[in-house]
Specification:
Blueprint lengths: L10 E6 L8 H9 L8 E5 L2 H9 L4 E5 L1
C-alpha cells in the first residue's frame, strides 16, 4: 500500500525584462524553453532544480518572483 502525500507545487513567475538579441544561441534557446516570447511577458512555471538552472543561465535577462 503506497500512499503518496499531496505535494504542493511551488510556482515561480518568470518575466523577460531584457531582449536576448545579441546573446548566444544557447541563451536565446533557454529563454524560449522557459516559455518566453516577448519582452515583459510573464509565465508561471513549477519550481524545480532544472528550472532553477535555466533561470541561472539567463539571470541577466529575466526577473523572478517566487510565490
Amino acid at each position: 500500500m503506497s500512499k503518496s502525500p499531496q505535494i504542493e507545487s511551488k510556482t515561480v513567475r518568470v518575466t523577460l525584462v531584457k531582449s536576448p538579441i545579441g546573446y548566444s544561441k544557447r541563451h536565446k534557446a533557454t529563454v524560449r524553453a522557459l516559455g518566453l516570447h516577448r519582452l515583459h511577458e510573464t509565465v508561471e512555471q513549477v519550481d524545480s532544480p532544472v528550472l532553477r538552472g535555466m533561470i541561472y543561465q539567463v539571470a541577466h535577462l529575466v526577473k523572478v518572483d517566487e510565490s
